[in-house]
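USER:
Working in pairs, take the chain set out below, taking as long as you need, and write a paragraph about the fold.
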Amino acid sequence: MVDIIAVDTDIACNAPQVVSTVNSCRAATVGSSFQIDVIVKEIPPAGAGFNGISGAEFGLLYDASVLSVTGRAGGTDVMFFQGAPVGSYFAGFSDPLPDSDGMYLVSGTELGGTPEYGPGVLARVTIEVVGVGTSEISFADPYEGDGVPNILDFIGTNYPINHQYVGEIRADGTPCPGDSDGDGVLDDVDNCSDWPNPSQTLPPWSTQMSGDIDTDCDGFGEARETAIGTAGRVHCSLTTTPNDEAIDAWPPDFNDSQSVNLSDVILMGPSYNRSQGQAGYNPRFDLNANGSVNLSDVILMGPFYNKSCTP
């Protein structure tokens, strides 16, 4: 399985078989021209049921009133990982250039040679901004119509693709949103904008338990964490060493060990059945922030019990 195929609007840190953090948005002006990459993470190695990449075919959809495709890297056609393997002949069937009909077909096959694996640049094309506006760059399957790019191995098997990420070109004067956690998913579409999860897989607990915004997906919203005294935009402690960080990250992990277990429940003891203003009350254990530490707070630990977090 290919985990990720994505449009990267900044190729600066990409090499043929090395890809960096994906930048899915780019601000541009009319008349500007630049390259974008279609990257994969990653083609499975031999022995994983597949045998390297031999062919690919997919469409790149764009708004023709904003963009056109004017060039491609790889000589006469797009070439996978920016070149054909030693001893291989590359046959390209991509659309002729310039392309201005709203869908650019990337199509080609490598015949023989040494199979290529791993992450890398599947295709690199040149984009020109021709009009004011915003254009998404997404994937299409022009023949099967399911929107899933076709990536084939040397025995003709189509690789399943786990996640697709589109690109966006903003030529309307609006800035691109940031990527606070550096996972390659922009904040405006990231389901956990303060916790890096490039696959967008959520943790094994609800991220809406406290009813307010939970950008770090630790199960407690920022307003609740402010009341408790934990870091509202940090998902997990950096180490498993107990009590080595000044401010805890995960509310039910009282000893800052990246795990919630019996040791955390025991730590509640001195504050149990204590309310705000009474000796022994500690807001750190008041998980529902209602001014008392009692059974309701213990119950709130249930969804996290015997679970761990990752930074």
The first strand starts at residue 2 and ends at 8.
